[in-house]
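Help: read this over?
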Amino acid sequence: MKDLSYIKQHIHIMLTEKRYQHSLGVQKTAVHLATLYDVPVEKARIAGLVHDCAKDLSVDQLLKHAAQFDIIMDDLTKYQPELLHGVVGAVLAKDLFDIEDIEIIDAIRYHTTGRSSMTKLDKIIYLADFIEPSRDFDGVDLLRKAALSDLDKATLLALEHTIRYVMNKGKLLHVDTIHARNSLLLRQDGLEQE
């Protein structure tokens, strides 16, 4: 893997200044959550910094990368190709920064949608993206508080916030988000193990 200063320098070039500052906020928040939940801090640091590396790419660029890297798109992603930024970002993390750690790659890949049986690192990056210091929306303080005491509860709250937001916008829900929520509910009821 490339060293952190190299990655940071290139992420700064790849993103708008606002998105770069957001990525630094996600990184800082992810590191804090990693210390609370006994997750390797360096993994959280890298995933937090790199999670949006493909976010500022145009739809055409995302589609070109998807074709170049043989990314298979589901019907929803074909309809809303901006959802590709997590999947393309995961591939770019490997290609540009030599990140091979599958936990980091998966946390980048699923930071927008979540997935069934999310790892602690998945949850941390998903939440850090949601609650980093520059985020300002109704309920963010409740999510920040929940994130400090119960990772699963906070992730469930964030997923449900996303679901309500997407439904209110009249957009399609990604099936991974539904699976992520259901998986956490099953775990909460003791029906799914971590």
In short: The chain has a mean pLDDT of 94. The chain has one domain: 4-188.
